[in-house]
């Protein structure tokens, strides 16, 4: 049994490594076209972030919002609904949170911070819930509705931080940068490592991941959610109100994305500003899939994606290649990893490869 | 067209799947004009063996000879070129194309830019004339009944010039009349020198149609011989490897108080028409009442409205004298209703969930399985282990997903769950459909045991043998109404058959 687990782990590692290498190979061609040395570029991308305090802390700073969005996505996917609206839910969550923090600047942190997070959760939940309700009761395709809601959220968000909620200083100086005023220190998440941007958000995210795991697999509500997602007909047969659980799934999913907004506001920028999300709403989907739609898989998955983002940033600076190539390489790696899932899900294929690699004897039973 | 296959041999065929030896060193042969029945329980390797012959799978070992020449069949296309055609259990037709277009799909044309539908039409006419297979070439597939669709499949295969036909459980979805027609047709084809391999586990049909039988069990050939030497019972024995006796009811039920009362119920079906049209029926404690009828006469709707899955327009449904009309499924379950649904793979179980999770599907929110919303893993673990051993569910462990279990074992999971809850009333819809004899025997034993525990049972089925075996009374449903109810001692197949066709009084009908 132990030996089997061991060879299984080697197999998984091997597949992922091969997938990443093939993506990097294609990326290398792009780098060559951009007249950069792929070897140095990749060396920087994968070693620099891991070789110092700055890189390591930055990876975790990126991982925190990714983890929260990924958790929300996992809840919705497990409940049979595809939430592509993380981006909009983050923005609404961020602006709700910022509003509370700006309205009650003098509350002590242990009251204000929870309030901000609750507000962000509610904001994101409303935005996700709209799509959920439309899916359940009006049969509107959730992919369409969540994407459209992204556009609406962005415009609403920009209107608020450019108009009613704009920093009075921006108006006074006439610069007009669309961002809210700086939050009072009571709404700042503690920096857990001095002289870095790493804040307590990562701890919140990990705790929430464990809670989501317990919620989905150890509670009756989680059981019903997963049943409704896995087989709606059977869920109905056992008396689950499938429509209501769809809406609940989207409320939770949006809420988690909303809290990712709060983490960026309270932990990183200390205000709501234009580029608050950095695409976390979309990368979060990949994090969730990469993590096997399982909260405990999403924790490491978000760190891996944090590394990709930070590494790409550093590579851009040290090898001076255009930022768009970095995005392309990130995309390639994601595609390769997601495609490589077939080597895990197709048991026949997996067995053949494992026998070829002598990780397994032919005739061994594989019941994973 | 390819030459007549006067002799086909498959020698020492071995095919492995991860963890399973699907075919183990199997030898079979077939001569022209012969109908060979391939018998075996679910998972015995019948379909796999035929997929090897049809080029869908490559065997690990073994060779195929046609007319004493060794051939390698590596795709259905090659199989066709040798004159081998296969009709699959699930039809391979495009629903929104016409019959003509579906047949044309399989024919290869030399010019890829030109589709000569007139030539295809001629070919269809030739074939349908030769065998008396009437079909409208311009009908869309979705407009056709299951029996007609099967005819299209046959025509398709014949148009492609098949001399050897493989039919994988061809009668699974057919009505008894359609089955009889098919048997006549197959015999006709054999007379004309074609050969047929007939896969089935319905022994009556095998007996009626085949010259020779090959019995597979767990991937190995265990018997080969002439059909006429055997009775249905001995064939069943060879198939299961043990004696099978379908349990039958032999004592009268005690006159008992009613448990389920359905009073003048009207309900709409999926199409918006009245699927239940003033239906009334009573089931007593410790009684099995059968519902016979051609499918589509309101059986599905009846089961759904009793369980609260869909609502009724008017009427009343009482369980144990309490009104359960239009309550939610959850309420009805809590009041002691059990339900074995027709669709055991997608309604009765959640395929991606583990056996353990499927076993607690109706009780996950009750103590001791959960406390204050938290599932109690240890208790659930013990409970599921107990049910798995009590009901002899064959699975590697309780974390295996239901999707990987055989139909019989999935049905056992459902039975275990429904019966262990000690329901007052149980609705069983087609509980043995598609199951092999051994599994069917088990299901019936369990239903009879439930009956002896004073549970009322409503058994919906199309198979008259099943109903006559274990029901106290048999009600015939026709166009949403109960046409008549017969006691077991006066019910016969003929009487039920007439009622199923909507003829209530024999004298009046004549």
Describe what this molecule looks like in 3D.
With 368 residues, chain A is mostly helical. Helix content of chain A is 74%, strand content 0%. Chain A has 16 helices and no strands. Chain A has helices at 2-33, 38-47, 53-78, 86-103, 109-138, 142-162, 168-173, 201-218, 220-230, 232-237, 242-269, 280-290, 295-319, 323-339, 342-345, 347-356. Chain B is of the alpha/beta class and 510 residues long. Chain B has a six-stranded mixed beta sheet with strand order 6-7-8-3-9-10, with helices on both faces. In chain B, a hairpin with a 2-residue loop joins strand 1 and strand 2. The chains are: A mainly alpha (368), B alpha/beta (510). Chain A binds chain B through residues 217-221, 223, 226-227, 230-231, 233-241, 347-348, 351, 365-367, and chain B through 17-19, 307-309, 328-333, 339, 341, 343, 346-353, 357, 361-362, 364-365, 370, 373-375, 377, 396, 400.
Detail the topology: elements first, then pairings.
The complex is a heterodimer of chains A (368) and B (510).
Chain A: H1 2-33, H2 38-47, H3 53-78, H4 86-103, H5 109-138, H6 142-162, H7 168-173, H8 201-218, H9 220-230, H10 232-237, H11 242-269, H12 280-290, H13 295-319, H14 323-339, H15 342-345, H16 347-356
Chain B: E1 7-17, E2 20-31, E3 35-39, H1 46-53, E4 61-66, E5 69-71, H2 76-81, E6 84-87, H3 99-106, H4 117-131, H5 146-159, E7 164-168, H6 176-191, E8 195-200, H7 203-209, E9 212-217, E10 220-226, H8 232-240, E11 258-268, E12 274-284, E13 288-292, H9 299-306, E14 314-319, E15 322-323, H10 329-334, E16 337-340, H11 355-359, E17 370-371, E18 374-375, H12 377-390, H13 407-420, E19 425-429, H14 437-452, E20 456-460, H15 464-470, E21 473-478, E22 481-487, H16 493-500, H17 506-509
Parallel strand pairs in B: 3-8, 3-9, 6-7, 7-8, 13-20, 13-21, 16-19, 19-20
Antiparallel strand pairs in B: 1-2, 1-4, 4-5, 9-10, 11-12, 11-14, 14-15, 17-18, 21-22
Helix pairs in contact in B: 3-4, 3-5, 4-5, 13-14
């Amino acid at each position: 049994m132990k030996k089997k687990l061991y060879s299984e782990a080697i197999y998984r590692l091997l597949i992922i490594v091969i997938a990443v290498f093939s993506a990097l190979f294609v990326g290398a061609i792009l780098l060559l076209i951009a007249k950069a040395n792929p070897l140095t570029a990749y060396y920087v991308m994968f070693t620099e972030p891991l070789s110092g305090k700055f890189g390591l802390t930055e990876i975790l700073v990126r991982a925190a919002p990714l983890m929260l969005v990924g958790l929300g996505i996992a809840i919705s996917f497990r409940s049979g609904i595809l939430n592509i609206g993380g981006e909009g839910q983050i923005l609404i969550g961020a602006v709700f949170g910022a509003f509370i923090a700006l309205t009650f600047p003098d509350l002590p942190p242990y009251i204000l911070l929870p309030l901000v997070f609750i507000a962000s959760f509610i904001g994101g939940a409303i935005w996700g819930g709209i799509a959920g309700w439309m899916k359940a009761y009006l049969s509107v395709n959730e992919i369409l509705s969540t994407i459209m809601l992204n556009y609406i959220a962005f415009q609403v968000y920009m209107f608020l931080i450019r108009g009613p909620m704009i920093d009075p200083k921006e108006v006074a100086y006439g610069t007009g940068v669309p961002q809210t005023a700086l939050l009072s220190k009571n709404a700042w998440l503690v920096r857990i490592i001095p002289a870095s941007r790493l804040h307590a958000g990562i701890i919140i995210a990990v705790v929430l991941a464990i809670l989501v795991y317990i919620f989905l697999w150890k509670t009756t509500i989680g059981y019903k959610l997963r049943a409704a997602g896995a087989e709606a007909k059977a869920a109905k047969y056992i008396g689950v109100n499938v429509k209501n659980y769809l809406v609940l799934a989207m409320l939770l999913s949006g809420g988690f994305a909303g809290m990712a907004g709060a983490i960026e506001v309270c932990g990183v920028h200390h205000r709501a500003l234009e580029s608050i999300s950095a695409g976390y709403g979309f990368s979060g989907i990949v994090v969730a899939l990469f993590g096997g739609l399982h909260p405990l898989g999403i924790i490491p998955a978000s760190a891996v994606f944090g590394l990709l983002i930070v590494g790409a940033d550093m590579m851009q600076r040290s090898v001076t290649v255009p930022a768009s190539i970095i995005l392309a390489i990130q995309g390639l790696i994601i595609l390769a990893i997601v495609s490589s899932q077939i080597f895990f899900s197709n048991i026949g294929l997996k067995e053949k490869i494992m026998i070829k690699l002598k990780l397994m004897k032919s005739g061994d039973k594989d019941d994973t | 067209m390819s030459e007549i296959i006067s002799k086909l041999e498959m020698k020492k065929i071995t095919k492995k799947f991860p963890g399973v030896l699907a075919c183990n060193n199997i030898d079979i042969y077939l001569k022209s004009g012969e109908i060979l029945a391939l018998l075996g329980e679910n998972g015995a390797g019948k379909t796999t063996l035929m997929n090897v012959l049809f080029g869908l799978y490559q065997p690990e070992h073994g060779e195929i000879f046609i007319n004493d020449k060794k051939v390698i069949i590596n795709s259905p296309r090659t199989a066709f070129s040798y004159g081998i055609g296969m009709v699959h259990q699930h039809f391979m037709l495009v629903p929104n194309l016409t019959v003509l277009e579906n047949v044309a799909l399989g024919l290869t044309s030399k010019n890829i830019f030109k589709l000569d539908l007139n030539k295809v039409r001629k070919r269809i006419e030739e074939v349908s004339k030769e065998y008396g297979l009437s079909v409208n070439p311009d009908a869309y597939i979705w407009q056709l009944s299951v029996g007609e669709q099967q005819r299209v499949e046959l025509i398709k295969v014949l148009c492609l010039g098949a001399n050897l036909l493989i039919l994988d459980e061809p009668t699974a979805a057919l009505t008894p009349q359609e089955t009889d027609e098919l048997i006549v047709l197959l015999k006709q084809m054999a007379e004309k020198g074609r050969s047929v391999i007939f896969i089935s586990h319905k022994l009556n049909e095998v007996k009626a149609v085949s010259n020779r039988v090959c019995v597979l069990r767990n991937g190995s050939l265990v018997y080969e011989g002439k059909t006429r030497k055997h009775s249905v019972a001995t064939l069943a024995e060879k198939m299961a490897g043990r004696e099978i006796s379908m349990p039958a009811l032999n004592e009268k039920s005690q006159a008992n108080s009613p448990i389920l009362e359905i009073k003048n119920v009207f309900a709409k079906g999926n199409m918006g028409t009245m699927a239940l049209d003033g239906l009334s029926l009573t089931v007593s404690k410790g009684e099995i009442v059968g519902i016979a009828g051609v499918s589509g006469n309101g059986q599905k709707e009846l089961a759904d409205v009793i369980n609260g899955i869909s609502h009724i327009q008017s009427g009343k449904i009482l369980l144990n004298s309490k009104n359960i009309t239009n309550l939610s499924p959850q309420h009805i379950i809590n009041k002691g209703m059990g339900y074995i649904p027709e669709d055991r793979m997608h309604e009765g179980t959640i395929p991606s969930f583990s056996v353990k999770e499927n076993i607690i599907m109706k009780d996950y929110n009750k103590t001791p399985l959960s406390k204050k919303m938290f599932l109690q893993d240890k208790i659930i673990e013990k409970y599921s282990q107990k049910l798995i051993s009590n009901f002899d569910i064959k699975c590697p462990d309780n974390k295996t997903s239901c999707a990987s279990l055989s139909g019989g074992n999935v049905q056992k999971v459902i039975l275990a769950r429904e019966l262990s809850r000690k329901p007052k009333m149980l609705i069983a819809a087609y509980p043995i459909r598609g199951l092999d004899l051994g599994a069917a025997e088990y299901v019936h034993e369990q239903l009879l045991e439930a009956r002896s525990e004073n549970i009322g049972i409503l058994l919906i089925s199309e198979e008259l043998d099943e109903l006559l075996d274990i029901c106290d009374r048999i009600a015939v449903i026709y166009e949403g109404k109960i046409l008549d109810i017969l006691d077991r001692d006066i019910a016969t197949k003929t009487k039920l058959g007439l009622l199923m066709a909507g003829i209530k009084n024999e004298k009046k009908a004549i």
